Amino acid sequence: METKYVGIDVSKLALDFDCLPVSAAQQLANDSVGIAALVALLEDSGVERIVVEATGGYETAVVSAFAVAGLPVVVVNPKQVRDFAKAMGHFAKTDKLDAKVLALFGERMKPPLRKLADEAQRSLADVANRRQQLVTMRAQEKARLSTVPAVARKDVEQHITWLDKRIAKLETDLGNRLKKSAVWCHKAELLESAPGVGDVTTFSLLADLPELGMLNRQQISALVGLAPFPDDSGKRQGQRYIRGGRTEVRCALYMATLSAKTHNPPIKAMFDRLTAAGKPFKLVMTACMRKLLTILNAMLKKNEPWKIQPNS
Fold first, then answer.
1. What are phi and psi for residue 283, nearest 5 degrees?
2. Mind listing the pLDDT tens digit for each residue in 97-134?
3. N or C, which end of the chain has less CB nearby within 10 Å?
4. 3-class state of residue 18 by DSSP
5. Using one digit for the tens of pLDDT, what is the confidence trace for 61-98?
6. Are 43 and 1 in contact (CB under 8 A)?
7. Of 211, 231, 210, whose CA–CA distance to 219 is shortest?
8. H or E, element range at 29
9. How far apart are CA 89 and CA 95, in angstroms?
10. What is the C-alpha separation between 79 and 285, in angstroms, rounded?
């Protein structure tokens, strides 16, 4: 069987896959036996790309198995694949058809292969994501305090106290994980040397943006979703907007920039200049977030702390 591009539609219970240039649709169970059989089937097939959609965690086991076997797997955004399917005129949607579309997406678009996170990186990201979930939950409970009935107020307050303790415990866990790794510990020291960058921002960057320091400024900005896209046609110059990217990282950078616009000289200078020019606050913050990100990216790339960054 000549197999160059493989698409795998992952669900909780099943793995539907198809391949190109010769279609060979099959379905296996999404368990250790099914995954092992799929790895054995693809190991010596000369496959160029295995395309898998991000499905909220159901894809983790099979993607990890491919990575261990040295197979060229790439995890893609489901919306991007769905838009591709519509552009190709494929409006029907079943697991079997989705697998075929994913294989076709791999053949036509050739999504770039990136180094996948190892177990330690995934574990760090899982803890950081759980912390963010609890922070969101705490904010929701605090918002309820202004309207909650008296009979339930004590319960809400106790829940907030419990959430405070759990968040603090997870932050301690994250700090310990960074300290145990010589690489992470050094990166954390570099990042936190920049004014405005604290523990929470560092946790998010190391957990959710492992590419930091390995890409150029344009690539890292686009990856996070801070690169403005043009919307021009003919003589019309439309409003530039950012889109896509990694929401968790942008949220962390936003909070860091709120501090950096006061305490970080290059960021403060940009914020003041754009504000004086009458630019909207949202645009100013986005520009400052992008500048802070590119500075941090350069620091890790050069392995230099903030204090020796020339003209940052």
1. -65, -45
2. 999 999 999 999 999 888 777 788 888 999 999 999 99
3. N
4. strand
5. 999 899 888 999 999 989 899 999 999 898 888 999 99
6. no
7. 211
8. strand 26-29
9. 17
10. 27
In angstroms, the CA 137 to CA 152 distance is 17
Q: Which run of H or of E encompasses 150?
A: helix 150-180
Q: 225-248 burial by CB neighbour count: b if 16+ within 10 A, else e? A: bbbeeeeeeeeeeeeeebeeebeb
Instruction: Classify domain 3-109 at the CATH superfamily level.
Output: ATPase, nucleotide binding domain (3.30.420.40)
Prior bond of 280 cis (ω within 30°): no
| Predicted confidence (pLDDT) at residue 243 exceeds the cutoff of 80 | no
Q: Which two tokens stand for residue 30?
A: 């999404």
Report the run of H or E that residue 21 belongs to, with start and end: strand 14-21
Task: In whole angstroms, give the CA distance from residue 222 to residue 242.
Answer: 9
Cβ partners under 8 Å of residue 64, min gap 6: 116, 119
Instruction: Name the residue with tokens 């076709």.
Output: 104
**What is the spatial distance between Cα 151 and Cα 153, in angstroms, rounded to a whole number?**
6
- According to DSSP, the residues that pair with 50 across neighbouring strands are 6, 73
Q: Which residue in 102, 112, 105, 15 sits closest to 61, CA to CA?
A: 15
8 Å CB contact between 49 and 70: no
Provide CB contacts within 8 A for 192, sequence distance 6+. Answer: 198, 199, 202
Could you please report the per-residue DSSP string of 86-143? HHTT-----HHHHHHHHHHHHHHH-PPP-PPP-HHHHHHHHHHHHHHHHHHHHHHHHH
